[in-house]
Design brief:
With 246 residues, the chain is an alpha/beta fold. It folds into two domains: 119 residues, Glutathione S-transferase Yfyf (Class Pi), Chain A, domain 2 (Up-down Bundle), CATH 1.20.1050; 107 residues, Rossmann fold, CATH 3.40.50. The protein is built from 13 helices and eight strands. A four-stranded parallel beta sheet has the order 2-1-3-4, sandwiched between helices. A four-stranded parallel beta sheet has the order 6-5-7-8, with helices on both faces. α12 links the parallel β7 and β8. α11 crosses α12. It starts with a strand and ends in a 7-residue tail after the last helix. The relative contact order is 0.15.
Length: 246
Amino acid sequence: MRVGLFVTCLADLVAPEVGVATARVLQRAGHAVVFPEEQTCCGQMHGNTGYRDESLALAGRLCEVFEPFEAVVSPSASCTGFLRELAPQLARDAHDEGLARRLEELGARLHELSQFVVDVLGTEDVGASFPHRVTYHPTCHSLRLLHVGDRPLRLLRAVRGIDLVELPRAAECCGFGGTFAVKNADTSVAMLTDKLRSVLDTGAEVCAAADTSCLMHIGGGLQRQRTGVRTLHLAEILASTEAGAA
């Protein structure tokens, strides 16, 4: 299968290694992965902030960029959720039925990484090895918008050598919420403090998640407190072939 990689603008700017890891996971599964360089922002930030026309212009551009691909895969539940679940309704609110249909057609081929691996490829073992203690934060959009359920955890449980520990109060938001963290900084920091406490209570070496945005927020807090806990995207763990200690 020829797969288009929708890496998202945030990953491209601050965590390009996440895109590389996603491609490695898909290539290991035997698929040709193409990164269309003309892709840009999906328009989520604009749509969430009330700039509907600007948002739809960006979303419509992605329909054109990814039209040639049988499947489109993204390491972002947040951006995938926007394009699949929210953007078509935004288009209808703007009385653009044509764009709404194009977005729905893209949405039928667009998959968040864990959903693609488990539901489309039909596997939970991607041949990864990662001998570390890991806890997993299920991001709000993955839980509440895309309903990925336990797919990321099923993939992590199949990773060789991993010590996967449950995150207390896992379903609670980390406080990022895109522009929420900027507009409501005090509330965001309070929510982050609670999330960091939960992460540290696990004794994990690594906090993983399926969205670079939340990992950036959580990782910043962990670094400022000098906890020694690092953050990694789910794709980076699934791409790992790190051997355990002898």
